[in-house]
Amino acid sequence: MADAFYEPDPATPNRFFSTELTRGPWSPDAQHAGPPSALLGHAIERCAPRPGFQVGRVAVEILGPVPLEPLTVRTRVVRSGRSVELIEATLSTDRGPVMQANAWRLKLADPPLDLPLEFTPSGTRPFPESAGPQQFPSNQSIGFHTGIEYRFATSSFTEPGPAVCWIRLKYPIVAGTTPSPLERTLAAADSGNGVSAVLDWSKFLFINTDLTVTLHRQPVGEWICLDAVTHPQPHGIGLAESALFDRTGPLGRSTQTLLVAPRP
């Protein structure tokens, strides 16, 4: 089995070979959206990096199924400024784009702002050691579900409804690198609609068309916690939202727009 989600193509810069660890739970030929979202984050952080700046928000648009094929990432600074800048990233196969992302990179306050304590988010969730690992329901022997570790502090994959779930990468996103806090967060956040599913997996689809992650600080450590809830609606549009945590407290939030439909 591969020891990373993507292998860099030594012959072509910004091109990556997708390994079987990227495979999603429903098709042997399509990736889970978590790894390619993290790959976009990997590229965004390397786009004209500026000391003293940090990514505060990433919005990923999923243009279609991401095949288990070589992927090319293109990035550019769309809007540069003294305090904020907008970065665009596109993920493509040889046939065209499959995902796009926009990221806001913001200048960090130096020295830090002297804010009242009541403006500092606080609170924690039960740590991952409080629960044993669970396997994502999948008919694929190897895939994203085997490349990460899930630990539910509340609920489970077999118990419908809101859930508090910790997620940890077992392997680097890109071989030869250490996953950054942003990569870890993007890889985990795309599981919000899965860990908090309220509908019967065998009867309904609830596919996310996007992933937006807003971080007010960088996570610390390997584990990312999703306090997640899914809101399906009878007209077929839903929302999954997750409050994001690490061991020290709140990080930010993620949202996913859902297409809800009967399973064919």
The first-to-last residue Cα distance is 32 Å
Radius of gyration: 18 Å
Give the biggest beta sheet. Answer: 14 strands, antiparallel
**Got a strand count?**
14
**Number of discrete helical segments:** 4
Instruction: Work out the helicity level.
Output: 10-25%
Instruction: Tell me, briefly, the overall form.
Output: globular
Q: Helices and strands, in N-to-C order?
A: EEHEEEEEHEEHHEEEEE
Content-based structural category: mainly beta
Question: How do you describe this structure in short?
Answer:
The chain is mainly beta and 264 residues long.
Written description of the protein model:
It is a single chain. The chain is mostly beta strands and 264 residues long. 11% of the residues lie in helices and 43% in strands. Strands 1, 2, 3, 4, 5, 6, 7, 8, 9, 10, 11, 12, 13 and 14 form a 14-stranded antiparallel sheet that branches. Strand 4 and strand 5 (84-93) form a beta hairpin. The two termini are 32 Å apart. The relative contact order is 0.17.
Q: How are the elements arranged and paired?
A:
Blueprint: E1 6-8, E2 15-18, H1 34-45, E3 53-62, E4 71-79, E5 84-93, E6 96-107, E7 133-134, H2 144-147, E8 148-156, E9 159-169, H3 181-189, H4 192-195, E10 204-208, E11 210-215, E12 223-231, E13 237-246, E14 249-262
Antiparallel strand pairs: 1-2, 2-4, 3-6, 3-11, 4-5, 5-6, 7-8, 8-9, 9-12, 10-14, 11-14, 12-13, 13-14
Helix pairs in contact: 1-3
